[in-house]
Amino acid sequence: MIRSLNTAATGMAAQQENMDVISNNIANSQTTGFKKSRAEFEDLLYHTKKEPGAAAGANSFSPNGVQIGLGTRTSSVQKNFETGSAITTKAPFDLQIEGPGFFQILTPDGQTAYTRDGSFRKDPTGRVVDKNGNSLIPEITIPSDASGVEVRATGEVVVYQGPNGDPSTIAQLDIVNFVNPAGLRAVGKNLFQQTPASGQAVANRPGLNGVGYLAQGQLEASNVNIVDEMVDMIKAQRAFETNSKVIQTSDQMLQSINSMR
Predict the structure, then answer these.
(1) 153 membership: H or E segment, kind and range
(2) Is residue 220 within 8 Å of residue 83, measured between CB atoms?
(3) Which residue ranges of the chain lie beneath pLDDT 70?
(4) Interacting residues of 213 by C-beta distance below 8 A, sequence separation 6+
(5) Most exposed residue of 11, 16, 108, 114, measured as fewest CB within 10 angstroms of its CB?
(6) pLDDT tens digits for 179-217?
(7) CA distance 57 to 63
(8) What are 118-136's pLDDT values in tens digits?
């Protein structure tokens, strides 16, 4: 009887973590470039009272055995890197990767981080930075006399200068990809860091080797679908309630045993 109390408790704990993941998805439904997550679960050890195939008689064997599970736990939280929908902004430094890939960002501690959030802007010195002031890699500085900026689909950054608006290419913006993007470590501020699970970052010209092209004047919306999250939330709530009902029922059975004369 005590086993059922502990087993149901693991189910409640797992569904609480599931709700934590779902609530984070919903909270970031309007976050640019956000990638939703999904909690995944696995069963725990089993109490084996009879091994499958154990002898049940002189010439017979137990076909299934007797194994009683001891509950569940969260095995992983999987990131979904499906591309979000496009948001048209017409801002010259808003960029969307139309397909796989990440922008490279230089963090204040000198590390390279990666992001799908392409909402960039100029700082007072003309450098292109993200919303937290982190420099884009490669560093791009827009001349003060530039009358216009064009970021082409293949990553060339072209500025227009002079009385005739002559174009000149000042930088080549490459994007990177990973063998296993789901293995990246999310560190907040729309940034990811490389890990042994993600593999090494591989830089490519936009549109080559399986990475996406760039689109200027657009941003990638969060890939969270509110309807799906609401359905998942209801399922998690019902599973939590059912596990709590198991605990209540087990407690009532124990109470019945204790009250026997």
Answers:
(1) none
(2) yes
(3) 1, 56, 261
(4) 97, 98, 99, 153, 154, 206, 207
(5) 108
(6) 999 999 999 999 999 999 999 999 999 999 889 999 999
(7) 12
(8) 999 999 999 999 999 999 9
Question: What is the token pair recorded at 12?
Answer: 């409640």
- Rounded CA-CA distance 221/201 in Å is 23
Tokens of 25: 């998805």
CA distance 131 to 123: 10
**What per-residue confidence (pLDDT) applies to 1?**
58
The DSSP line for 82-143 is PPPPEEE---TTBEEEESS-BEEEE-TTS-EEEES--B-EE-TTSBEE-TTSPEEES--B--
- In the chain, the amino acid numbered 45 is L
Tokens 């407690």 appear where?
Answer: 251
Residues in the chain: 261
Structural contact between residues 109 and 134, judged by C-beta atoms closer than 8 angstroms: no
State pTM to two decimals. 0.85
Q: DSSP letter at 253?
A: H
Write the single-letter amino acid at 81. F
